[in-house]
Amino acid sequence: MPADPILFTASDLDRWEETGGRLSPPARLAVIGDPVAHSLSPEMHNPALRACGIDAQYVRLHLRPDEFCAALPKLKALGFIGCNCTIPHKFMALEAVDEVHPAARRVGAVNTLIFRPDGVLLGRNSDAPGFLRTVREEFGREVKDLRILVPGAGGGAGAAVATVCAMEGCRELILTNRTNAKVEQVARSLAGLPGGSVTTVLPWTDEALADALPRVDLIVNCTSLGMNPGDPEVVPHRLLQPHHLVCDMVYKPLLTPLVAAARNAGARAINGIPMLLWQGVYAFEWWFDRPAPVAAMRGGLAGLLGSV
Ligand code: NAP
Fold it and tell me: Counting atoms of ligand 1 from 1, which one is nearest the CA of 130?
């Protein structure tokens, strides 16, 4: 048995009766990632399943990119209801599902898989509505009123955030990404959207950020920077100012370097836990076609939500 009793791998799927098949309640939902051991989605969804009296359990599934597509029919055969996809699978998931919801197609990334009773595997994206809800609940602000910088806009979460900001017609949208080609592609995909936000792509340089940050209201870190000790700064910490709102998608460690630096600068900052909650609420509602038990989900994350 692994140290984490609900962490499984591709090879576990091939001998499920001896591995995940022994769980009670049965494993029917999973977060799929590489890495995935850090994911707190089970801590949020399992209390929700219990609160609703649903005989199912949510587990972690470590799949490498070359294992992802082959695992999907296995999960379907094992009776899974759905999955969440995290780094680095959100783009591959878009290609791997049978049907993509139009909102996820616009975002260009899938983070929620739904194994429908008719056999169709549907891909949706809960990062986009989850982000809007996070900004409203945590900062009491509407995205449309803000000038927003999105480092990591070329990644799965970043594309979702950029798309939803553009669709909401945010006052200004500034995108940047280590790999420029990826963010240029996201920016092109925003061109035809109805919101009409002024969108700029910045080079991934301190100089460009120093120029832009004074006019930015909200910084949304959509890179995975901060997860590993010694990671470079997402934006130079010396450029953070008290008027900034900072939303870090990263939640491991709970006090991320960006959140700590923003608070030191007098800014309001949150880690990725509220975003985890709200994107999870939408996913739960799509899987079960019923309101999510938000209090139970919050309870599962309690302490994490309250402590940082
Ligand atoms: P992804 O699609 O793999 O994107 C990763 C992003 O991070 C890309 O923009 C990538 O840039 C950038 N990046 C990685 N290493 C970097 C480095 N050393 N320097 C600069 N940029 C770097 O992953 P994702 O699904 O979007 O997730 C991104 C992060 O958000 C992860 O930490 C994930 O856990 C978190 N997240 C949290 C929530 C939540 O609910 N709190 C929801 C979604 C995502 P390149 O394009 O150059 O590779």
Answer: 40
